[in-house]
Design a protein that fits this description.
about 260 residues, eight-stranded antiparallel beta barrel, 8 helices
């Protein structure tokens, strides 16, 4: 299944987890990213629909959203379950076992690979859209990998906090949600930033003004330049892609 990400970099222009847990949400999202060969796409999607049907037949009450990658590697599919509590994922694991055989026999043969991580929302470092339950057509997903040196993680978080404060002060029209990645392997990013769009036209237009112009207007050019430099100094790597919402591959629990 597939991973969702969107970023302060595209919106922004572009581990010491013990100390940050107090600022994190108690709700988490589990992401899956599936990679398939081009020739296997149709068979894979048919298998995914069969798996969804099985979940419905067993009255599994945990929904997840499906997304197709529109940029980057377009032979990827991403799925997001949540936000749920950590305990919910224990229950989900048990109730979905009834459909494991369907997944293993019908979907696995078409997979080139699969990655899963948990995303923990960072409320103090986010400006979520006002329509929280809206299923927007597109999401821009940006992955941030922080340098593995002392102070880099804290510096990154401090930068995002200052940008968010400037956005609030300016009543900026840009909105985003920052997540800390948990449970990833050595190639996983440290943070994902997700920005939602209703259309390609809205995505192309971007935020107005651009993020760094907004920050400059809020705190002055000298301070904005210093914040921008701190971000560059803290980051090892940044990557982004755009995904489109797939209603036909999404699983919606009955009554939701």
């Amino acid at each position: 299944m597939k991973i969702i990400t969107s970023c302060v970099v595209s919106a922004i222009a572009l581990s010491a987890a013990i100390n940050i847990h107090a600022a994190e949400s108690d709700k988490v999202i589990r992401i899956y990213r599936d990679v398939v060969e081009p020739a296997q796409q149709q068979a894979y999607e048919t298998a995914l629909k069969s798996y969804n049907k099985c979940l419905g037949q067993h009255n599994v009450k945990y929904s997840w959203l499906a997304w197709n990658h529109e940029t980057g590697n377009t032979y990827m599919y991403s799925y997001a379950a949540g936000p749920y509590s950590w305990a919910d994922f224990d229950t989900m694991h048990e109730v979905s076992k009834a459909c494991d055989d369907t997944w293993h026999s019908e979907a696995n043969p078409h997979l080139k690979g699969e990655i899963s991580v948990f995303l923990v929302e960072q409320p103090e470092l986010s400006r979520p859209p006002k329509e929280k339950d809206a299923k927007n057509a597109l999401i821009n997903v940006t992955a941030f990998t922080v340098k593995s040196v002392s102070g880099a993680d804290e510096a990154f978080r401090d930068v995002v906090k200052k940008i968010t404060a400037a956005a609030e002060k300016s009543n900026w029209n840009g909105h985003y949600v920052l997540y800390r990645v948990r449970g990833g392997d050595k190639d996983s990013p440290d943070y994902l930033l997700v920005t939602h769009y209703k259309s390609w036209a809205e995505y192309g237009a971007g935020a107005n003004p651009p993020v760094w112009k907004m920050v400059e207007g809020a705190v002055g050019k000298q301070e904005a330049d210093a914040i921008h430099k701190s971000l560059d100094d803290a980051l090892q790597d940044v990557a982004s892609h755009v995904d489109s919402y797939s209603a036909e591959l999404t699983y919606t629990a009955a009554g939701k």
